Amino acid sequence: MGIKKELLDILACPKCKGDIFLTQNEDGLVCKKCRLLYEIREDIPVMLIDEAKAWDESIKIKD
Q1: Predicted TM-score (pTM) of this structure
Q2: Domains and CATH numbers, the chain
């Protein structure tokens, strides 16, 4: 099903409150400023700072 654009428009990084971006595979949300990846599990974004992973640029962001 994936994340709807309306939801992406209102979500923000819980750490810096900045913009987040959907990964190319639609399995995570990335904050470029904090360089964190928040996983999406069963179509639900896990927006917990403690569960975020370091983002490396090999994980592409959707345009």
Answers
A1: 0.90
A2: 5-54 (2.20.25.10)
